[in-house]
Structure formats: C-alpha cells, structure tokens
Write a structure and sequence with these properties.
With 247 residues, the protein is α/β, with parallel strands linked by helices. It has helices spanning 43-51, 90-100, 105-118, 134-147, 164-181, 192-198, 229-246, and strands at residues 2-10, 20-28, 32-36, 58-63, 66-67, 75-78, 152-156, 184-188, 201-205, 212-217. The protein has seven helices and ten strands.
Length: 247
Amino acid sequence: MSFEFINVSKTFAQAQAPTLSSINLTIQRGEFVCIVGVSGCGKSTLLNLAAGLELPTSGEILLDGRRITGPGADRTVMFQEHGLFPWLNVYENVCFGMKLAHLSREEMDAKAEHYLQMMHLSEYKDYPIHQLSGGMRQRTALARALCMDSEILLMDEPFSALDKQTSNRLREELQQIWMETGKTILFITHSVEEAVFLADRVIVLSPESKSISEQIEISLPRPRHVYDPAFVALRHRILEKVREEVL
C-alpha cells in the first residue's frame, strides 16, 4: 500500500495565496511520518486533505492507486481535541465508531477490551468522560481510533494540549502501539523532539513556498532516548531547518 500526494495544491476561497503548493509525497505501508513546521505553513490542511475532509484545488491524492474524494473507512482521524461524547462513558465512546460500522456485539466487545487494556483504561471503562484527566481522555480517543482498524491513522497534534509529562508518556505508548500494529501513521506536530522520537521520516513544510522544504530520514534504533547524542543532533538539525524557514 502507498499513500501518494501528487502535485497537490490547496487555495481556499477569498485567499490571496495558496495554503499548500505542489506537494509531492509518498508514504509507504507501515511508515510513521511526522509533518513539522511553524503555524500557518499548512500542516493541518495537509492532514485534512489526506482525510478527505478537504479536496485539493489541483493535483490528486491516491491510496493504493485509488483517488481520494472524501472521508473513508480506510482512514481514521484523531484531532488535538479528543472529540469524545460527554453523555457516553469511556466504553461507549470507544465503541461508538464500531457501532456505526455495524460490527457485531461480540466483535465490538473484543476490540474494545483489547484496546482499553492496551491504553491502560480497563478499570475506567464505566467512568463518565468528565471524570477523566486530559491524558486519559486522549487515551480514550486513541483507543476509539484504533478500534476502527483502518489502514491509516491521521493524527493532528493529539498531545499538544497536554502537560509535558503526560504527552511524553503518551508518545511512548503510541510508539509501542505502532510497533505492535504496523499501522501507517501521518502525524502533525509542532514539536521537533516529538517528531524525532516517533518518526521514520520527518517532513518539513515551508511557510514561504507552502511546500516541502526537506525530508529527513530518522534511522535511530527504537526505543529512542531524547538525551542520546545522535537524537540531539537530529533534533538540532531539524530545528535549524525550521528556523531557516521562519527567517
């Protein structure tokens, strides 16, 4: 499977300039790709195009050679805001998408239990959402996304609103989940450290050209450690590239 952006550009109505211009990017099956760049460079727009929530002004996006023309069950989106339903408890939230997909009760129960256990939420499955911490809410949202068992997981800064300690733990858990499931993940982040920690490849978007300015392979062994000299060097290199784009 490949996920391809071919000469993709996006200009919104009444905008004087494109938000994205001539994006060419191929993501292979099982690859973890992080998109970084300053605010306004088009990161979230790129993810919305991948999800089919927006359509490109020109160019095309292909999944296994099929053109994406809207949302689909082959892609699951997780946003910065968890999007949980406050009138449902943890278990009901996790099952919500599966219920819409008309999975059997037995299959829903099995998947929900599996991912709730993976996200350390089994003992909280009957809790109302308002009783959960921010980190636990994001775990619930991630469990719900994983239950849909889509080919691609699209994540738009899912940990950015959390405190540092919580976000660090969640990215460790996400890395472990990715290693266990082999899902293809496209992950948007402001944090270069987070990108180096998670990604096989980091894509830097330019606020000037509204396109890809550099693609950086991250070949560090996993699990990764933020104080490792090779990690620090890669983090510094990407930070400098982002800073150059700002200047």
